[in-house]
Amino acid sequence: MSCPVVVLISGSGSNLQALIDQSLQGDLDIDIKAVISNKASAYGLERASNADIATHALDHKQFESREAFDQALMTLIDQYQPKLVVLAGFMRILTEDFTRHYEGRMLNIHPSLLPKYKGLNTHQRAIDAGETEHGVSVHFVTSELDAGSVVLQASTLISSDETADSLAKKVHSLEHIIYPLSVKWFSLGRLTLQEGKALLDGKPLPLSGVRYTTELNDH
C-alpha cells in the first residue's frame, strides 16, 4: 500500500514536482493526498492540479495568530491521514504544538550543509564565509528552526566566480535527487525517528546524516 503524504509549499514547488515525477515513474511508492500552500498564487498548486492532486490555499494572513493558523493547518492536513508530511519550500516557522503533533513524520529540506547556515540567504552566506563547498540537507522537523536530526546531505563545490544564483541552481539540482530518496526511505519503513535521533534500517545516523553518493540510488 502506498504511503499517504501531504505536501506543504509556499512557492514554485520544484521539489513537489520531483516527488510527483518519481511517483509516476514508479520509483517512489507514495500517494500524495493533497498539496497545501499558505499562498494562493503558489505555482506548486498548479503543478499539483496538473497531476490530479487535491489542492488547498490557506492564507496565514487571515488568522489572528501563528497558533490559530497552525491549528487550522493541522485540521486540514489530518483530514487526509498522512503517514508523512513533506515541507517543500514552506516558508513558515511552525509552532511547537504543530511540530510535536507530527514528530517523527515530518521532513524538511534546507539549502545548506546543516548545522551550518540555518535560516535564510544560505548561498550568499556560504560564499561570503569563503566556503569551498555548500549543499543541502534533508532533516526531520522539530520546534527548533532547521535543527532536527539530519537524514541525508549532498554537496557541491563553490567555484571562484560563484554567485548566489549560480550556487542556488547547483543546490536545486541536488535537492531534486535527495528529497525523493529520503521520502522513499521513509515510505519503505527504513527511515524512522526515535528519541530525537534519525535511524536508517534501525541504525542511528551520524549528526550530519548520510552523505549522498550515486550508489545510494540502488539501495
Please describe the topology of this protein.
Elements: E1 3-9, H1 14-24, E2 30-37, H2 43-50, E3 54-57, H3 66-78, E4 84-87, H4 96-101, E5 106-110, H5 122-128, E6 133-140, E7 150-157, H6 164-187, E8 191-194, E9 197-200, E10 203-204, E11 210-211
Parallel strand pairs: 1-2, 1-4, 2-3, 4-5, 7-11
Antiparallel strand pairs: 5-6, 6-7, 8-9, 9-10
| Helical coverage, percent range | 25-40%
Low-confidence stretches: none
Radius of gyration: 17 Å
Order of helices and strands: EHEHEHEHEHEEHEEEE
Describe the global form. globular
What would you say this structure looks like, in words?
It is a single chain. The chain has 219 residues and is an alpha/beta fold. Helices cover 32% and strands 26% of the residues. The model has no long low-confidence stretch (mean pLDDT 96).
A few lines on this structure:
The chain is α/β, with parallel strands linked by helices and 219 residues long. It has 6 helices and 11 strands. Helices cover 32% and strands 26% of the residues.
List keywords for this structure.
eight-stranded mixed sheet, three-stranded antiparallel sheet, alpha/beta, single chain, 219 residues, 6 helices
